[in-house]
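Many introductory courses stop at the sequence. We go one step further.
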Amino acid sequence: MVVIRLSRGGSKKRPFYGIVAANSRAARDGSYLERLGYFNPIAKGGEKRLEINLERVNYWISTGAQPSERVTVLLQEVNNPAKIEKRQVKTAARKARSQEKVKAAVSEEQPVA
């Protein structure tokens, strides 16, 4: 059976994933039939986070390939770019709240005499 899944690359603590169509019995980072794109979870600045060739993905799905759970989420993200912006807004809000908590905790501390 053919699956569309992630193949890990990159170095230690710096993951980079290729989105590949592979035989389900092949090793995660082993041989694959075709590379369909990539996913960079730690992209910063001008780097692209996600690139997928949807035409080839649709071809593989039409031939019976099954996408993994994570690839399914990434495909939904490509089809709905507003989802990316929502995640970025939530992340920024979460960081702001945590910084406020730290400032409040520091201001409440009294120096020990």
